[in-house]
Design brief:
Blueprint (H helix, E strand, L loop, with lengths): L5 H17 L4 H17 L5 H21 L3 H32 L14 H16 L8 H9 L1 H4 L7 H4 L9 H37 L6 H32 L17 H7 L2 H12 L9 H19 L3 H22 L6 H20 L3 H11 L24 H18 L3 H7 L4 H17 L13
Helix pairs in contact: 2-6, 3-4, 3-5, 3-6, 4-5, 9-10, 9-17, 9-18, 9-19, 10-15, 10-16, 10-17, 12-13, 13-14, 14-15, 15-16
């Protein structure tokens, strides 16, 4: 089930909010209801994989209980390895077999494995909890609390990656009615903003980007439209999901950590990774980069840790060489930034922003591409290696005719609007914090949500991070 679907907004969400409101003063029953709703939400896509999710929850909860009685580091280490092996089987077995076949020749058939929904995210939640338990930053908790911590439907499919201390302490807390009302209002505003990002910008750019990436000979103009189009699509898609997730949690009385802080305004690549998918960045920092030595063991060790961290971060996104290349180049870019910062040279903020934005945008081409060859076709054309042809071959697609006379003009207009929103408007969190409850605002949000729900009648479009 998708957040941006009519069945979710018109049926599932009202049911959840109604039941949650009725049980707001009955902690145990309310917790049980939220678990049932979350498991139903997960099972909607492919019910058999619910067994995998439940098995992982019970197994990791049992490890935590065992560790509470036998506090040995080996218990946690074995559990983390087993979690990674399960993730590796479902996500990387086919990729590893293909590599082996490339080296030795055909011999082993690639396994036909369906990737379970959200396995990367709930595996990282398990690992973060176990390591925090080992470090004394988490405690063994009840099975009910742990089940909701992992399966809570707002963050289950695509994050944010939540730590023990950010959700479990909130579970038994009964908030005053005024506080719940205030949180609910902010939640509705965030949800509508996120849905608008997804529906009005990301989903409008998606068919254009798909067309342009499929071209065998993209022109100079087509390459840049594809590059900027996907750069905006992935941001408005994923940050839109995060806004909706945080908004849903607020409607239910829970605060989840922010995941984006205007990343395309970053003036360096280091700054970018402090603003983009922030809960993943801190996961990689705390559980990979720092244990590998971080910046404590000299410059060479730091750069090796950076490169390994970003390589594995890229591979986490998908089992393909494109993600490995994307991660490796980001690692190299971070090393270059650290070397520059150590030098006596200085870069004006505007130049730092432009360099960072273009670097990130160009590398997102490989993130989106189905092969390194496809990505290079776009990048080489954007660099002018195929000439400076400004022709655009974009045809009408989707549910509507072109508003501005041609789909190419529409695409350019949407990219322009997206850029204005990115660089001239407050981000979602800041905007919602500035809002004050008024009848006019309530009416506006109601009308906006109604229009967006009608637009969803064309069919819900999956999120970019839907099956990671």
């Amino acid at each position: 089930m998708l957040f941006n679907s009519q069945i979710f907004i018109l049926a599932f969400l009202p049911t959840v909010l109604t039941v949650d409101s009725l049980l707001s003063r009955r902690g145990g029953l309310r917790l049980f209801a939220l678990i049932i709703f979350s498991l139903f939400f997960y099972a909607w896509w492919h019910p058999p994989f619910l067994a995998l999710l439940l098995a992982s929850i019970v197994a990791n909860w049992l490890v935590a209980r065992i560790y509470a009685h036998v506090p040995r580091a080996g218990v946690i280490a074995v559990a983390v390895i087993l979690n990674l092996l399960v993730l590796g089987y479902f996500k990387y077995a086919g990729f590893l077999v293909s590599i082996w076949s490339d080296i030795t020749g055909p011999g082993i058939a690639a396994p036909d494995i369906v990737l379970p929904l959200a396995i990367s995210f709930f595996t990282f939640h398990h690992i973060a909890y176990l390591i925090d338990l080992r470090c004394g930053q988490a405690k063994a908790t009840s099975l009910a609390h742990y089940t909701l911590f992992i399966s809570f439907f707002p963050h289950l499919l695509a994050g944010p990656i939540v730590r023990y201390r950010e959700l479990i302490p909130q579970l038994p807390v009964l908030l005053p009615s005024a506080r719940r009302l205030e949180m609910g209002g902010r939640g509705i505003a965030l949800f509508v903003i996120g849905l608008a990002k997804k529906t009005l910008i990301a989903d409008e750019l998606a068919p254009v980007v798909s067309q342009l990436f499929a071209l065998n000979d993209p022109s100079f103009a087509e390459a840049w439209i594809a590059t900027f189009g996907f750069t905006l699509q992935i941001y408005f898609d994923f940050s839109g999901y995060t806004d909706m997730a945080l908004g849903l949690a607020l409607m239910l009385g829970f605060e989840l950590p922010a995941n984006f802080a205007s990343p395309y305004r970053a003036t360096s690549l280091v700054d970018f990774w402090r603003r983009w998918h922030m809960t993943l960045s801190r996961f990689l920092r705390d559980y990979l980069y720092i244990p590998l030595g971080g910046n404590r063991l000299g410059l060479e060790r730091q750069f090796a840790a950076l490169l390994v961290t970003m390589l594995l971060g890229g591979l986490w996104h998908g089992a393909a060489w494109t993600f490995v290349l994307w991660g490796a180049l980001h690692g190299a870019g971070l090393i270059a930034v650290h070397l520059w910062q150590r030098s006596a040279l200085r870069m004006p903020a505007a130049a730092g922003w432009l360099t960072t934005f273009l670097f990130v945008a160009v590398l997102f081409v490989f993130f989106r591409a189905t092969s390194i060859g496809q990505g290079w076709r776009i990048v080489s054309a954007a660099l002018g290696l195929n000439g400076l042809d400004l022709s655009l071959r974009i045809v009408e697609g989707g549910w509507r005719p072109a508003f501005l006379g041609s789909p190419a003009r529409d695409a350019i207009a949407i990219i322009g609007i997206g850029m204005i929103v990115l660089f001239l408007c407050a981000n979602s969190q800041t905007l919602v914090e500035r809002l004050r409850p008024t009848r006019e605002l309530a009416l506006f949000l109601g009308v906006a949500l109604s229009i967006l729900v009608i637009l969803l009648g064309r069919g819900a479009q999956e999120f970019v991070y839907f099956q990671f």
